[in-house]
Amino acid sequence: MRENAIKKIKESEHKYHGPELANPIAEFVIGKCEEDEEFAALVMQEHKTLLKCLDFIVEQAKKHLNGKAGYIPPEEVYAMANDYFAMDDAALEAKKAEADAKREEESKKRDAEQKSAKAEKDAEKKADAKKKSVEKKQADGQMSLF
Predict the structure, then answer these.
(1) Residue 28 counted as domain residue
(2) In this structure, is the dihedral angle defined by the CA atoms of residues 85, 89, 90 and 94, taken in order, positive or negative?
């Protein structure tokens, strides 16, 4: 379990810009996984990622500093990372995923409706152009057989 948790963090560590935050947090999490099998199990939860951990830390830091610039000691930042992985947020993640899926479905439905409306409009334009063409030919004294 520990090896898999460490591998998960190491693989994701290099995906993110801003190594000044990602690298120390990844090193902390890896060290914690090496020491604590239970923590490694928390890291292995499917919905837990290094990116979400970093987002959580940034969010908590903003709250801690009331949105102002300031300093937070590394020990507090590491405690935030620990809190993220220890937090039981599976239900919250499931709701978020469900909401994201619903938004995606609504977006696809809206896109399909827009495409359908555009297709109808294009068909009307073609029919109008054909009608005008026929009218013009008839106006020129020619009869259309089509």
Answers:
(1) yes
(2) negative
Tokens of 101: 């899926």
Q: What is the mean predicted confidence (pLDDT) over 85-103?
A: 80
pLDDT, tens digit, 9 for 90 and up, residues 16-55: 656 777 889 999 999 999 999 999 999 999 889 999 999 9
pLDDT tens-place string over residues 105-116 = 888 888 888 888
As a residue count, the chain comes to: 146
Longest dimension (CA), the chain: 94
Nearest alpha carbon to residue 45 among 101, 15, 81, 86: 86
In a domain, 116, yes or no: no
In whole angstroms, what is the distance from residue 74 CA to residue 142 CA? Answer: 87
pLDDT of 139 higher than 60: no
How many other CB atoms are there within 10 angstroms of residue 11's CB atom? 10
Domain of residue 9 covers 2-87
CA torsion through residues 127, 128, 130, 131, sign: positive
Q: What is the mean pLDDT of the chain?
A: 84
- Contact yes or no for 43/4 (Cβ under 8 A): no
